[in-house]
Predict the 3D structure of the following.
Amino acid sequence: MAPPLPPDPLLDHPALSAASTAGADSAAPKASSPDDKMTDVASDHVSLTRPRPRSTLNRRGRSTLGRRASTRSLDPAVPWRASFPVAHVHKGRNNIRTTKYTVLTFLPLFIFYQFSRFYNFYFLLGALTVIYGSSSLSPVSLVSPLVIVLVFAAAKEIIEDYSRYRSDRDANGAPCQVLRNGSKIGLLAKDIQEGDVIFLTKGEKLPVDAIIFSTSAEDGTCFVETAELDGETNLKRRTALASLSHVTTEAEISKLRVLIQCEKPNESLISFQGRISVVPGHVTEAAHEATEGFEPLSMSNMLLRGAVLRNTDFCWAVVVYTGHHTKIIKNLKTTGVKKSRMEKWLNWLVSGAFVYNAILLVGSTFLQWVHYRSVINTESDRKAQNITNYKVEWYLPDTTASLGKDFADYFISYFSLYTYVIPISLFVTMEIRVPMKANNTNLNEDLGAVDYIFSDKTGTLTQNEMRLARWYVDGIEFDEMINEGGLGQVIRGEKGGSLPVETVSHIKLFAQAVALCHDAIPSTDEKTQQIFYEAQSPDETALLYGLMNSGIVLQTRNKSTLQVTNAFGDPERFEILNTLEFNSDRKRMSVIVRNTVDNKLYMFTKGADNIINARLSQSSPVYPADRKRKTDLALQQFSEIGLRTLMVAFRNLTEEEYEEFAEEFYEASNSLSDREARVAEVAEKYERDLVLLGATAIEDRLQDQVPESIEFLHRCGIRLWVLTGDKKETAINIGMSSRLIRPGMSVLVLATASAEQALARIDELLGELAQQLGVSVGELLAQPLGRASAPPAEACLVVTGEALEAVFADAGLRQRFLRLGLRCHSVVCCRVTPLQKALVVRLVRDGVGAITLAIGDGANDVSMIQAAHVGVGIRGREGTQAVRSSDYAFGEFRFLIRLLTVHGRYSYMRLAGLIFYSLYKNLTFITVQWWFGFFSDWSGETVYENIFFVCFNVIFTSLPPLFFAIFEKDVDEDDLERYPELYAQVRAGTYWNWIHVVTTVLSPLWHSIVIFFGYLYLQSESILDARGRGIGFWVQCFYLSTPMLLTVLLKMCLQTRHFVWVTWLGLLLSVAADPLVQVVVEATGLGSDPGTSAIQHAMPAFYLTAAAVPVACLLPDVSAALLRRLLYPSDVDLIAEAASVAASRRSPTNRRKVAGAAVADQGAGAVEGNASIEMLEVK
């Protein structure tokens, strides 16, 4: 046998006393009796069980002592394990890297990502024509477009990735304290590994996922803030195992051996399944592996990476997951990139530009081939006639009959020329324009075309500032809004002296249930010394503050006990035996407590009324029908005035019942598979035969201007769907108070339990809608689902979560439900889960093809926010997870109006104008080159100077489109928020329609004809320079490029409505850059001959052409715009004109002019004739 161990206070602890004699012979044969087997387990295993109930006999009279220790043996196929002390030290096990690139992988990965974009690949092909050597453009002109795009993209990628690198560096280099070789040592966070025991102090952030070993609290409790994980700002309680909570020193921990077996690393932040075995340190690893009797571990024992230790002086924890195995890193998955609908339309336009490019390319190559064959045939005929001077093009080398090579030469030459059809500046401008700060600026323009809004209620439409409004107990309603503390007054006998003793006793038990059934944590303000509460739900704190008004105060709480001061000021202590926590599936919470005075066992339960009602005892003496009827009536009345309701119930437990529950609950919670389902099954079994105590009602007021905002959105033509977990009556009441349900609007309710009932009810509701709309049901179902469908009926559809469950189970039923919802003015879905919220959004998004926006404030809204085209987060009281998961975020629902009507509409208008203009200018630019081919025998010669090809997009026409995309306005911001119909017009296609597409193609065609043939006509008699000489090729290049540049810049002026000094500056710089580049090109010898620019600018014909050609080009554009504005003025035209008149009246020079009144009257009359803007007045 091993020698006896020296005295050790730790080994004297009862939990370890059985293991004090274990050693190398711990695997020796033992007696075969059950008691001996139990002793064998205890000899090598530290007991980790909670204190057992007093009774050691179950209902069958069998002993239960030791049953917890003899759990099933270790599974050799356990997915994950961690053991202390660490056998082998490895550095870098906790190192994380969230960067997209490394120094070595940046170049290959960046090139791969960039050339997966088709337009970049297209530019690459153009650049590669340099290798072939037959291009008319210089290598600089060919390569520079691709280089410019790649430089901007690389700069953006490097900046973003460097930010990730800095975050990784800070996380990996954070100092930590780890227990190794019996003492604490300092390590960098990246060098922590599985099995290490780490030491944390208050305010420290967890660098790993770890199981709590012990804390500064006697019961092993600690509190953590998990805002970085789940967005919740309230503190959460975590606990150590009861048998380990006393092990708090380095020496004590160093004398133990720990083995943890658990599930593989996964991304779930709310669940964990594992088990732990702890034995004295002298037990060998092999002996420990053979040990039985593991204690279960759950999420309540775990601290996750990113959590911050609060309200706890220190904590010891065993590391389970490190690095990329931690749950928060597992959750850093790249979600699908959201792209705006306009970006998809842009892809179609770019595809059209490619087709245009292909037409020019094929046409040029074919015409060159025709010319080539004509020259070959003519020269062949002359040679046959023995004509000495047989060459047709005597100034060129001999023409060969190598058709294939010549064809390839000209094809590549034209291909490189026509790559400039694609506006490279458009993609660069779209990358660098950032008109507003948001999580995702790719979707700015989608904000200007939203069709459906899906909104949460609590914290989004309401303030989420909960205040207790009503208690309802045994037929008595206590209005806390009028008389605070009424409950305590009745208990103390200050009021209600005539009430029966049984009723008062019932009220006391109700107050006791509310004071005990929660997860709130009492704390004391250091300045005021006042008690305040922190809980995951604001409803919890509202109830406790309501009790405080009655003199019933929760004073302290630890892992196993609660101390409450009753209404008389006397302290009462309760032992917490078990807690069955609330979740979205259970919709209830239960706590099992023991009164330390009379030793009675109670199960207190609170939850949604439909959940509690289904679990109430049906025995009349226990639950009289009259009490049920009165309570249901009270709950309905509370819901109708918009209050959030809960029911409170209880049941007494005998020692035998609790013993049986504890055994089943332990077995379920100790399971390594389906643990949550088994625990829920046990809870369902015992949360039965409850006795109703009463009900609570909490007020959650609407946010500022919510009714006005919803009315405004309706006038914008946007449909609003509210998705909430509240009761049907509460949801309907909020809908009425928020004007979602307008006066006179019919309310259609779909609250069925089965698919058959849902189908019948939907058909019935479709019949009601058809009757209201004056059509048949068949005609109603035949109407299209898109935005152009018939106007909705004046009805609001109210759907329960139970009905949605039936609807989503059947594809045909989903489509029928979708048609029903789309034909209603608004929809309210109540009692819905987070998953159902997302399913509803996806149903409308995919079924209609319309732009959807989801807005919410809590973690339960994340799935809905991510399912919509655009996600908006509200910074509220339910944490920041919704904000972090959203595309845009702000503080209140009313700010949505400005986000959509101002930022969204401006972004839509600006990007549409930017896209159409960018395509226009490049089509004009390259089509002039195509016309030149008819007069250059399709030789591939360029009509512009080589450098002009590069500078056209990068310098000459880069600033005006950029400033347009940032500063352009068609209507003042105040007018946009005054006239919601302007938003509806954008959705209808004011700025993006086929007219704009056609004019984008026809305008370049007309302008290129006028530019090229206008120049040709003006120089047909041979233009002479200042010295009387004919102009040469280089002068011609500059001569033709200047009017073309002025034309496209003046086109931008026509497109711009809102000029600011930056706009003028961009235009002037673009015009001035043309002669400046000419001078630089001559001086550096990169292109034209010296003196070319001087010759050009000394010619009067040059200035005539520069003035006449742009005027001729844009005359049809100006005429069409004026005629449209005079004959068919848009609402934007009328509002802008009215604003201009009002501004002129405010000017000092016009204040005395009486004639202004006549102008105002005329403007008002013009606006009155426009049906869509009925409210406009010119004052």
About this structure: The longest strand covers residues 643-653. The CA atoms of residues 64 and 801 lie 43 Å apart. The chain has a mean pLDDT of 78.
